[in-house]
């Protein structure tokens, strides 16, 4: 039974280049839910309906999908659900040099995300947390970030937890948080409000992080 298990799906936008050539923001978003059913069948059906039209669609990915596909995905994701979205926004030019290595930067941002989640979610009936992050291709980076995430969790969480890195193609909820994160990112970077407004009622925390 999963009644006592909370799932957290995490996605990021931006890169770890802190020069002026890098992305202006780094953003980390989490989709927290006990409901891993509501979107699965509708997204599965939508995916196969699109493939039946001749499109080679292996997964939903907001930055790459056609606009009409994005519209269809958002129609599914904005149906009533118990899920919450939490987001941390970091203006990268404000991050001191000492915090700019991925091994220090990512865990600090992740800790902030967990603090926001803990301030908003009722954990009374939760006994276990399952965290699923998108697969990281480089082993050394993955191991260092995994260590940092565990350290951040030890400081913020008293629950038993499992931490996994999965390819986003394997899970519709990883694809969902990719969409949510994209919608928030384009609002902050391009002033594009329409995708954000579609999901706004699901956003429970959206904070800009300071390293000062």
Q: Notable features of this structure?
A:
212 residues; Nucleotidyltransferase, domain 5; 6-stranded mixed beta sheet; 6 helices; globular
Description:
The chain is an alpha/beta fold. The chain has a single domain, classed as Nucleotidyltransferase, domain 5. About 40% of the residues lie in helices and about 20% in strands. The chain is built from six helices and six strands. The protein has helices at about 40-50, 65-75, 100-120, 140-155, 170-190, 195-200; strands at about 5-15, 25-35, 85-90, 130-135, 160-165, 205-210. Strands 5-4-1-2-3-6 form a six-stranded mixed beta sheet, with helices on both faces. Helix 4 links the parallel strand 4 and strand 5. Helix 1 (about 40-50) packs antiparallel against helix 2 and helix 3 (about 100-120) packs parallel to helix 4. The termini are far apart. The model has no long low-confidence stretch (mean pLDDT about 90).
Number of domains: 1
Count of DSSP strands: 6
| CATH C-level | Alpha Beta
Q: Please identify the structural class as seen in this structure.
A: alpha/beta
Contiguous helical run count:
6
- What percent strand? 15-25%
Oligomer: single chain
**What is the terminal-to-terminal distance?**
44 Å
As laid out across the biggest beta sheet, the strand order is 5-4-1-2-3-6
| Proportion in helices | 40-55%
CATH topology heading = Nucleotidyltransferase, domain 5
Question: Strand-and-helix sequence, N→C?
Answer: EEHHEHEHEHHE
Please compute the radius of gyration using only Cα atoms.
Answer: 17 Å
Roughly what is the average pLDDT, rounded to an integer?
91
Biggest beta sheet attributes: 6 strands, mixed
Q: Which architecture name does CATH use?
A: 2-Layer Sandwich
How would the global form be characterised? globular
Low-pLDDT residue intervals, each spanning 5 or more residues? none
């Amino acid at each position: 039974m999963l009644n006592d298990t909370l799932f957290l799906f995490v996605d990021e936008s931006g890169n770890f280049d802190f020069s002026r050539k890098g992305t202006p923001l780094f953003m980390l978003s989490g989709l927290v839910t006990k409901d891993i059913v509501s979107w699965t069948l509708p997204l599965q059906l939508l995916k196969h309906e699109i493939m039946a039209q001749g499109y080679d669609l292996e997964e939903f990915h907001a930055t790459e999908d056609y606009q009409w596909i994005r519209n269809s995905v958002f129609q599914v994701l904005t149906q009533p659900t118990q899920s919450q979205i939490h987001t941390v926004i970091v203006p990268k030019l404000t991050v001191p040099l000492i915090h700019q290595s991925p091994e220090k930067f990512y865990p600090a941002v992740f800790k902030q995300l967990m603090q926001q989640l803990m301030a908003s979610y009722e954990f009374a009936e939760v006994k276990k947390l399952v965290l699923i992050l998108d697969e990281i291709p480089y082993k050394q980076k993955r191991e260092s970030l995994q260590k940092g995430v565990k350290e951040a969790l030890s400081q913020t969480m008293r629950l038993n937890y499992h931490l996994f890195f999965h390819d986003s193609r394997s899970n519709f909820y990883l694809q969902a948080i990719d969409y949510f994160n994209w919608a928030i990112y384009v609002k902050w970077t391009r002033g594009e409000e329409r995708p954000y407004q579609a999901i706004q009622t699901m956003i429970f925390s959206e904070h800009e992080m300071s390293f000062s």
